[in-house]
Amino acid sequence: MKKTTILLALVVFTVSAVFAQKSKVTSAKKSLDEGNVGEALEMINEAIDPNNEKAEKTISDPETWEIRSDIFTAIAQSSDPEVKKLSDDPLTLSIESLKKAIELDTKDKNTNSLKYKLTMLTNDLTTQAVEAFKVENYKLALKSFEQILDIQNIPIIKADDPEFVDTIIIFNAGLAAFNAGDFDKAIKYYEESAEYGYNGARTYPLISSSYMAKKDTVGALNALKRGFEKYPNEQTVLEGMIQIFIDLNQSDEAMKYLQMAIDKDPTAARYRFAQGRLYEDLGDEENAIETYQKCLELDPNFFNALYNLGAIYYNKGVEQFNIARDVPANENEKYEVEMKKADDWFEKSLPYMEKCLSLEPDDHGTLESLKNLYYRLQKMDEYNAVLEKLGQ
Predict the structure, then answer these.
(1) Is 342:321 a contact under the CB 8 Å cutoff?
(2) Dihedral angle at the C-alpha atoms of 347, 351, 352, 357, nearest 10 degrees?
(3) Which residue of 61, 269, 323, 330 shows the fewest CB atoms closer than 10 Å?
(4) Does residue 237 contact residue 228 with C-beta atoms inside 8 Å?
(5) Better-predicted residue by pLDDT, 299 or 232
(6) What is the C-alpha separation between 192 and 194, in angstroms, rounded?
(7) 365 near 307, Cβ under 8 Å?
(8) Does 151 have pLDDT greater than 90?
């Protein structure tokens, strides 16, 4: 009889302990509903404390973790600084709590509630990502976008629409990763976006830029080649390829693709300019001059074409001046002939440099060139005006 009494007492004690901990969970929910978030957090922490023997039942109850998620979501959504202090990363803890609740909900009793809360969490995470972007906290933005993608792949969420792919979030994750300096992740997410055709051809230059940031020129070029194969009429991809070929001194390849660009858009002055630059790099002045002139036919105010054409004529004048200077002193007539040739080149250069000055009055390179041209051509009023502008 005595033994039975002791056993009954133990049973009563055990049941009381369970109910005590269960009441902690209930009280935590009540405190949360009443706006006492700190108090709710303290109670729920007791209910999941593995060192607390009384928490054995509540720690394995999915409802406990669901309420814990609600508490951390409330912290994230609060504008009260004191509540905000309760957690540095509340949305992450909210997600982790819901995942734990799903794991423990083996009979799927809470599936609908958990799905709803996970869906609402994606809204909070999106807001967090946007706000992080605004203050240039790109690492937090990236983390938030990745957490949204993680939620979308949780089985109870994925089951509703197995084919759904959130390309906007994937692309934004790439953008955040790039800005955060995580170029491997940027490539991963941009590549995934490109696979689904998101943003069309414009994604490939972003992939290329990510490789370039890693100093991987081959990877950058291959990305653009894949983009060109998929979008052969997209000029931005083509231009990116041309620039890399130029940077790699692969002139033949650059010229080949540049001609493709010109064939696709013969009215684009920038392509003629790029081709002129390429001819200059190859030492083909004749074709460079002809191409710059074509560029200016398309756009008479294309500053760089004007300047480069003026510089070619100016440099040829300097070369001719040096030839004249080497004429023996007793051959005055030949000297005058050679100097006249130099002045002819300077005269050809002058209108291009003057047009440059009219377009960009403070361009230092143009002013220096004009100073030398006016002096050589004895246009002293113009020379003095340029000196004054240069502060000399």
Answers:
(1) yes
(2) 130
(3) 330
(4) yes
(5) 299
(6) 5
(7) yes
(8) yes
**Phi, psi for 61 (deg, rounded to 5):** -100, 120
- Closest alpha carbon to 95 in 84, 106, 86, 103: 103
SS3 letters across 351-391: HHHHHHHHHCCCCHHHHHHHHHHHHHCCCHHHHHHHHHHHC
The CA-CA-CA angle for residues 16, 22, 28, to 5°, reads 135
* Interval 122-150 mean pLDDT: 96
Average of per-residue pLDDT across 36-49: 92
Average pLDDT in the 369-388 region? 93
Q: Tell me the average pLDDT across 315-344.
A: 92
Nearest Cα neighbor of 133 from 81, 176, 86 is: 176
- Whether 9 has a pLDDT exceeding 60, the answer reads no
Closest to 102 measured CA to CA, from 34, 94, 304, 196 = 94
In a 13 Å sphere around the CA of 192, the CA atoms on its Cβ side amount to: 17
Tokens 């940027």 locate to 186
| Burial of 89: CB neighbours in 10 Å, binned 0-12, 13-18, 19+ | middle
Specify the residue for token string 């979030």.
169
Residues in Cβ contact with 137 at an 8 Å cutoff, skipping those fewer than 6 apart: none
Residues above pLDDT 70, as percent of the chain: 94
Extract the tokens encoding 109: 């009793």
Tokens of 36: 């006492």
Q: What is the per-residue pLDDT for 22?
A: 60
**Environment class of 82 (CB within 10 Å of its CB; exposed 0-12, middle 13-18, buried 19+):** exposed
